[in-house]
Write a structure and sequence with these properties.
155 residues, alpha+beta, globular
């Protein structure tokens, strides 16, 4: 009887993680997503805020969220918890189709390596800078500086 239950559980898990499986996911911005009711903040990166534009008008925040959505689309999504942030979000390494979303976002120039917390994506950022991709091409202010400036407006 226990073997039957184990086989059934494995079959159900396979269906949940199968490509094209039905699960609820929403992109909040370029480094935050919601999967089946859990909010995940991508580990080791900081993407432009949703309303953040670069000095040349490039809509960095909107494009970062759109890029993250394109990376996820059509792939099974799995998140591995690393920590919880001060807002109660689960900080995690999330993979779509086996690819680390944080690494891809930084490598493609849609986020910065958040060196304050991790050096995991420093190499991807160096490559994006060298190739002048995304935020590096448009002279965007790092998201942590942009947030600080925005908060100061209301103090």
């Amino acid at each position: 009887m226990r073997l039957s239950a184990l086989i059934l559980a494995q079959a159900l898990l396979g269906l949940l993680l199968a490509p094209g499986a039905s699960y609820s996911q929403t992109i909040t911005d370029g480094d935050t997503l919601k999967l089946n009711g859990v909010t995940y903040r991508l580990w080791g990166i900081d993407a432009p805020e949703a309303k953040q534009d670069c000095p040349d008008g490039w809509p960095a925040g909107h494009l970062a969220a759109t890029h993250l959505q394109s990376l996820i689309s059509g792939h099974p999504l799995i998140c591995e918890r690393k920590d919880t942030d001060r807002f109660g979000r689960t900080v995690a390494i999330c993979r779509a189709g086996g690819e680390d979303l944080g690494a891809l976002m930084v490598r493609d120039g849609y986020a910065w390596a958040f060196l304050r917390y991790s050096a995991d994506y420093a190499g991807q950022e160096a490559l994006a800078k060298r190739e002048g991709l995304g935020v590096h091409r448009h002279g965007c202010q790092p998201a942590w500086e942009w947030r600080q400036r925005e908060r100061a407006k209301y103090e």
